[in-house]
Amino acid sequence: MIDQPGSSILQVKNLNVFYGTFQAVSNVSFYVKSGEIFGLLGPNGAGKTSTLSSVEGLLKPQSGEITVAGFNISKQPLHARANMGVQLQATSFQPELTITEIIKLYAGIYGVNLTSEKLNALLQDIKLEEAASKKFGQLSGGQQQRVSLVISTIHDPILVMLDEPTTGLDPQSRRQLWERIEAIREKGHAVLLTTHSMEEAEAVCDRIAIIDHGKVIATDTPQGLIDLYRNDPAVISASRKGKITLEDVFIGLTGKTVRA
Ligand SMILES: Nc1ncnc2c1ncn2[C@@H]1O[C@H](COP(=O)(O)OP(=O)(O)OP(=O)(O)O)[C@@H](O)[C@H]1O
Q1: Which Gene3D superfamilies match (predicted)?
Q2: 89 lines ligand 1 (CB under 6 A)
């Protein structure tokens, strides 16, 4: 049941994804409002990427309805996709191209008029102005992530989707990326991200959904989930430091077993 979607930019209703006979996503529903950062949390194999790929239109779900900015992803895919920005994996970019060439290439693909002032401002913003002529393949993982986020937001989409955006980043780069994600929220746009970091979920997400075995098992604000489950015996037994954290709630709800 979707409660109070309000001014939702993204609505996902009763999403079901199968790979052959295996059901990876089962009746998943959630919404993301304007000015909201929404996190999908779940153990390995829970169905987060399958959900994200369905929203991105890269995967055709067996059933369910997805609307982005009011456009149905299967009926009006071009309109829906024009309103979203997807952070691509570093391996999606041509390593021989320079940062400048890659940013210009994607600006062209998205039909964005990128003046040299705007390009310089973007490069300054991600602290890569001096590396502008470096080949993408020569950048560190963190630098590549920053370029990738710039590209996903170059056409100023109202929904930005990030699959584990800060994995492998040092604390400084992670903080900087969080600030960039928060700047998207401040514009009144929406962010859907996946993360394995409970710290990240608590630091930047306004609401989260915990997914396990393809199903949403809880949705609330991080603090709301802690308050709701703090007396749950499984959550208390997961607690390590005498106080209940979001990670304790996550382990309490999804179990201690490492997924195959
Ligand atoms: N192309 C595919 N063919 C068959 N099974 C798949 C395929 N893609 C994903 N799966 C399976 O679907 C389930 C959900 O995978 P998914 O990648 O959505 O999980 P996830 O929550 O993103 O996991 P992780 O945290 O490990 O990235 C897993 O059991 C996975 O093995």
Answers
A1: P-loop containing nucleotide triphosphate hydrolases (3.40.50.300)
A2: no
How deeply is 166 buried, as exposed, middle or buried, from its count of CB atoms within 10 A (0-12, 13-18, 19+)?
Answer: buried
Three-point CA angle 169, 161, 102, nearest 5°: 70
Q: Write down the pTM of the prediction.
A: 0.92
CA of 45 to the centre of ligand 1 (A): 5
d(CA 172, CA 32): 28
Provide the angle, in degrees to the nearest 10, between the axes of the packed helices 171-186 and 141-152: 10
The C-alpha atoms of residue 87 and residue 77 are separated, in whole angstroms, by: 18
120-150 pLDDT tens trace: 999 998 889 898 999 999 998 888 988 998 9
H-run or E-run covering 136: none
Q: How confident is the model over 213-226, as pLDDT tens digits? A: 999 999 999 999 99
Domains in the chain and their CATH numbers?
A: 1-83+158-170+185-220 (3.40.50.300), 87-156 (no CATH)
> CA-to-CA distance for 60 and 158, rounded, in angstroms?
22
Ligand 1 binding pocket includes 47 (Cβ within 6 Å): yes
- State both tokens at 149: 């986020």
**Ligand 1 centroid to residue 44 C-alpha, Å:** 8
| Contact 42 CB / ligand 1 (< 6 Å) | yes
